[in-house]
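Input record (one chain):
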Amino acid sequence: MGLFDFMTGKKKVEIADERIWLTQAAKHAGIQREVAEAVADPAGPSAVIVVAHFNDCLAQLQAAVADLDRDRVLLTCADALAGRTPTDLVADPSRSILIIVGERHPLPFHNQAVMDFAHSLPCRCRVVYHASLEDPLLKRFAGEWVQRVLRGLGMKEGNVIESRMVTRRIQKELEKVARTATGDAPATHLGLPQFEWN
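The corresponding structure, as predicted from the sequence alone:
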């Protein structure tokens, strides 16, 4: 947070609580709704950046945002964000950018790269991570039994859980994975549309 941000009481980058969905299909539908609502809001963000870490998620997100405003909705692989700032998106610094991340990378430094990108933007930014109980990371501590319990309690496919406690639990699981990981392979973009940088 810079001096100006401190004086105005506004954070430059706001990190929302993790949004947890029952299934992958519900997660992608939820992302699609969130992007569509942000683009439709005249006072909403100047752009929405939809980020994936892996090819399968990137392809699914492409399908989810295919019919939305391509001038304001950008789809990219997280690795493509490194060291780049899309200056054409922030012509009006009083507007903000919404970054929606469709998954957590199991190695924390890849997630940190998304946050570094958000902090590099010359305007306010909101970062929202989405996950589902079918994601490999969540299956490590919240298996199918959690899905069954939630359904038994009346949770519907389109409902979402937002909880700071769950976000902290995901962070702890990421730390465990980082301690035991033996390698890292880069994600590629499969030739899907990426940022057009100035």
